[in-house]
Design brief:
two-stranded antiparallel ribbon, globular, 427 residues, Growth Hormone, Chain: A, 2% strand, 2 strands, mainly alpha
């Protein structure tokens, strides 16, 4: 596998291809994600209907997250999963580019929601399969930096494309960006992805290596800390997911033709923060632990919600997105590290990733619908304050009920990427 100090040189080409995949896949997802709310608002959709439309994809995603994680654990060809999912995203983007009619929007959300659950777990699985547990923290943080760089690039590109050719061109751009995504994925060498590492490692029994595959009940329902963390993730995204779409709607109110540039500015601010900090977050979490970072990430969310109610100045609202970058950078990196900590040598790494994504997806789906209804019946201010209260509850639960998950120096070495536990089976 890898030495004690660096990733094996023969795997570095695959690592670079993995980073490129993160970059281009982020381009595709950015073109399909936050811009949709502003696009629909500009097409005359009411806030409540926008929230329902966004929730359709979220519901499909929720239903498939855990099964998708189990499939990623089982299938050896991780690259094929990424290629197929990218193609499905392209189909959804093309459909959105044709019309904003309800049938097209809802069908595209089914396609996008069906592909999304496979992407995050597969990218993390490929990362673990290439670099092992020893370097996973650092490399996963770097992956997130490339992901955010892709988001920034796409936000700038989309801003220009929408200005020149209209909002529908956003989705054509997203579809075209699946081409370099697939090429980068195919550049990852299949032989460099260790199958057992990619799903959580192997175990030693009587001196022999066997694939690790703990029961689902033992891995999920038997781990109280993991269950509480999943509840924290649900509350975090219930509070967080609606804020950026709501901000886009609020910024574009009365100036619908400027919706995409406004959203580009918001996304760029958030993603620049993630791009600049994600790699350092991975290194910090490996040395100082997960919980201090998580408390910071959860703690800035209620502050951000309150700040949105104190100003209607466009520049100030966009600047507040710095806090969104902090929260999402920390959660995006550290939540997966917590999952890796709790699933070492279980063979259920991707299944639990899927369970985490299910909690996130449920929270996000309910958030957009709930926030849209609050705006429709009350105001943007009431919606932001209510979401901020939920964020405060999530912070309190994390603080009092979730301990540090990083194994201490005195604990037994369960690193399945160590030579004694590695099984070189290509994915």
């Amino acid at each position: 596998m890898e030495s004690n100090s660096t990733i094996a040189s023969e795997k570095k080409k695959s690592v670079r291809a993995l980073e490129a995949t993160n970059f281009f896949l982020a381009d595709v997802q950015t073109g399909l994600g936050p811009f949709l709310a502003a696009y629909l608002a500009g097409a005359g959709w009411e806030p409540g209907r926008v929230g329902v439309a966004l929730s359709v994809g979220g519901i499909i995603t929720v239903l498939l997250q855990a099964p998708a994680g189990a499939i990623v654990d089982h299938l050896r060809s991780k690259r094929l999963i990424l290629v197929i999912a990218s193609a499905v995203l392209a189909a959804g983007a093309i459909l959105l580019s044709l019309t904003a009619a309800p049938w097209a929007v809802y069908t595209s959300q089914v396609l996008i929601g069906g592909a999304g659950p496979f992407l995050g777990p597969t990218l993390a699985a490929v990362t673990m399969g290439i670099v092992g547990v020893t370097f996973f923290d650092r490399q996963f943080g770097k992956n997130q930096s490339f992901n955010s760089a892709g988001n920034v690039f796409c936000a700038l590109l989309v801003g220009g494309v929408s200005h020149l050719f209209g909002n529908r061109a956003i989705f054509i751009t997203a579809a075209l960006l699946t081409i370099p995504t697939i090429l980068a994925t195919l550049a990852i060498k299949s032989k460099d992805i260790d199958y057992n590492l990619s799903r959580g490692g192997a175990l030693q029994v009587d001196g022999k290596e066997i694939p690790a595959r703990a029961s689902v009940i033992q891995t999920l329902l038997g781990d109280r800390i993991l269950l509480i963390f999943l509840a924290c993730a649900f509350l975090f995204h219930f509070a967080n997911a609606a804020m950026l779409p709501q901000l886009g709607e609020m910024l574009s109110h009365g100036v619908r033709t400027s919706a995409a540039p406004f959203m580009s500015a918001c996304i760029i601010v958030t993603q620049v923060v993630i791009m600049c900090s994600a790699s350092a977050i991975g290194r910090f979490a490996n040395v100082h632990g997960r919980k201090p970072l998580l408390l910071v990430g959860f703690g800035v969310l209620p502050i951000r919600a309150v700040l949105y109610t104190l100003t209607h100045n466009t520049e100030s609202l966009i600047a507040i997105q710095l806090l969104d970058g902090v929260a999402n950078a920390i959660f995006g990196v550290v939540s997966i590290l917590v999952v890796a900590d709790r699933t070492r040598a279980t063979g259920r790494f991707n299944l639990v990733q899927g369970s985490l994504a299910t909690a996130v997806g449920i929270g996000a789906a309910l958030s957009t619908s709930f926030g849209g209804k609050l705006i429709q019946h009350y105001s943007y201010r009431i919606s932001f304050l209510t979401l901020g209260a939920v964020a405060a509850i999530a912070f309190a639960l994390l603080w009092f009920a979730v301990p540090e998950t990083l194994p201490g120096p005195g604990e037994p070495d369960t690193d399945p990427s160590s030579p004694a536990l590695t099984q070189e089976t290509p994915a």
